[in-house]
Structures are given as C-alpha cells and as structure tokens.
Amino acid sequence: MEAYNNEEFAVGCILSIKTSLGDEFEAQVIAFDKPSNILVLQEGVPASGPKRDIRLLKANYIKEFSFLGQGQDPLDTNKCFLDLNSLQSREDSAIRQAQIDAERFGVGVTAEAQTIFDALSKTYVPSPP
C-alpha cells in the first residue's frame, strides 16, 4: 500500500479496511504518522461510551480500503472522557503509598533483617489510640 495519498488518511476519516492478514474492520483515523507509516485507528465507529478499541496498523499491511465518510474529530477535548479530578486523586494516592513503602526500608540493615521486618510488618495490627 505504498501508493496512497496522505489526504485519504486524514484525522476523522472513517474507513473500511481489509488487511493482507485477512482482517476486515471499520475504523476512524485518529492519527497517521507518515515517517513510520503507522495509522492509529479507533474501531467500532461511532464510539459508544468511554471505552474505545484502538488499533495501530502499519499502512503496508492494508490490502484495500474504502472511504465511508468523515466523522467528528476523535481527539476533541470537549468530548474527552478523562476525569481529571479522579486521575489527580489516583496520582496522589499512589505517591502517598510509595512514600509509605519507602519508609519501611531500613538503612544499614542486612537483606535478611529487612526480610524479617517485612514479614513481621504484615502481621502487625496497630492498636487503636
């Protein structure tokens, strides 16, 4: 599939694709990287809900394709399903957990002593104040 026009792989295009490996599917172009010749495709157009199937496909593996239409911009930030507050709280929680884990490592102790401490700390339940 060397003789293609870059316009055919414009972001938002909905294509019906047959690969040289026998796969047939419909997908919307999210991105096309010309130097690597890789298409980023969103399958199951139109996307329903926050979960999407993404496929990376080397354009050389496209046996044939047909243009089905132009869809909405798949990268529209106004329709982004990412909950930034939830992501921020997950990041904060992961940082706190990493700090707690780092505090459990002994300084200047042998590996055997650290293993014993780790085993004991799993069974230790602090009493309420």
TrEMBL record:
This is Protein LSM12 homolog. PROSITE patterns: AD. Pfam families: AD, LSM12_LSM. Residues 80-129 form the AD domain. It comes from the Eukaryota. The gene is LOC107764607. InterPro entries: AD (IPR047574), Lsm12-like (IPR039683), LSM12_ABD (IPR019181), LSM12_LSM (IPR048478).
